[in-house]
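Hi R.,

Here are the chain sequences for the assembly we discussed:
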Amino acid sequence: EVQLEQSGGEVKKPGESLKISCKTSGYTFTSYWIAWVRQMPGKGLEWMGIVFPGDSDTRYSPSLQGQVSMSVDKSISTAYLHWRSLKASDTAIYFCARQGDYGVAFDYWGQGTLVTVSS
Amino acid sequence: SSQLTQDPAVSVALGQTVRLTCQGDSLRSYYANWYQQKPGQAPVLVLFGKNIRPSGIPDRFSGSRSGNTASLTISGAQAEDEADYYCNSRDTSGDIWLFGGGTKLTVL
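And here is the predicted structure of the full complex:
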């Protein structure tokens, strides 16, 4: 059974760094892209970027380029989303999702991680 | 520009048929995928590619495409179909992905 298990909610201050995780199981981690999707409070889904665990190739949304980074640890089948310096506007729920067969759609999703940035 | 446009809100009477639409230039090249999201939950893929339903999705969900517009049709809407629905596809470059703004479906 394919599963994506995300790390727990975080409360951080502006300027702090953060790394959240997405631990996968039930499939070959290195064969499928992992996307990160943001959902700001009361708003819709926003694609942030995508990483291929096989070679760590990444693509970022032009609107978020440089604000976040994505990485993987193949040894533990886990993808990460990093911030160097959080802003209050980063407050959102962050989902990881697997890009499925043939790269057509996001077929499995994590449960989401709520990140709250407040002074 | 690369974007997908959805109606913000649609309502349907219980048991009736409703069509949700998604417009965008990228849909001339790529099929739309559709996700259902209920409050406090992660999105769930309900339709992808050329009208393909993942395992467990009822056959009352179907899709179509014409020009730059994709549609998700729910035939005989049920109370449990009340949710936000998002369309999604690659942009025209193929390198990045887009989501529509979402449609809030109310089942009356």
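The radius of gyration of chain A is 14 Å. The interface with chain B takes residues 35, 37, 44-47, 50, 59, 61-62, 95, 97, 100, 102, 104-107, 109-112 of chain A (CB under 8 Å).

Let me know if anything looks off.

Best,
T.
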